[in-house]
């Protein structure tokens, strides 16, 4: 298993890898689904919409369906959720967000700093974060460990990220899904159009078709494109991306 790459399990997501040298990639350097990588189909930590707390997974919605009618309503969904209650830290940030009109960049940065410190305190050698132009963070993939190491990592990651996940999710929606769309492809394309990364007439149907065919009209390696995807819990990796060495 040495040299294989593993994904964290804090959030379920759509993932592809492109040209991961020596790590279960297609021989021609093309994209391969996460199901083909180290036998895994598990998400990376970003907090872009597949929260355990909200029950509203970006990606599952019908065309035109919304997560909520407003950001305030979206935040209230988390505050009032009695089945998966928010942590005290998250509640404090959410109340401040309602007063400020959203989660601030400072609170988002603090959430990720808290997560990173929590993981390092558990003995991992490093936690590598990728930051996109829209301010969204994503934890890098890591070289695989033993089964027991991976099980502990998954549990530690879920514990550490579980205390700040809602803050990360709300900020990701603010930055990458301003229209609060519940369909992932629609949300990503809306973000791409808002940031002039695709033509204004580019559609979610076109995006899905291009990904299925492997013939993209946009620059998949553009960090702005990847930021829109990460904000909506869709991840794409490339050979020159950083890889964590946790052990």
Structure description:
There is one protein chain. With 247 residues, the protein is mostly helical. Helices cover 39% and strands 9% of the residues. It contains eight helices and seven strands; from the N terminus they run βββαααβββαααααβ. The chain has helices at 71-79, 88-100, 105-121, 147-162, 165-176, 184-194, 204-213, 223-231, and strands at residues 5-6, 14-18, 31-33, 129-131, 137-139, 142-143, 234-238. A hairpin with a 5-residue loop joins β4 and β5 (137-139). α5 (165-176) crosses α8 (223-231) and α6 (184-194) packs antiparallel against α8 (223-231). The chain is globular. Residues 9-43 and 48-56 have low confidence and may be disordered. Keywords: Signal.
Give the end-to-end Cα distance, rounded to a whole number of Å: 14 Å
Residue share in β-strands: 5-15%
Shape from CA axes?
globular
Widest β-sheet, arrangement of strands:
3-2-7
Counted beta strands:
7
The percent range for helix content is 25-40%
* pLDDT averaged residue by residue: 83
Protein name: Lipoprotein
Region (Disordered): 28-62
Keywords: Signal
Signal peptide: 1-26
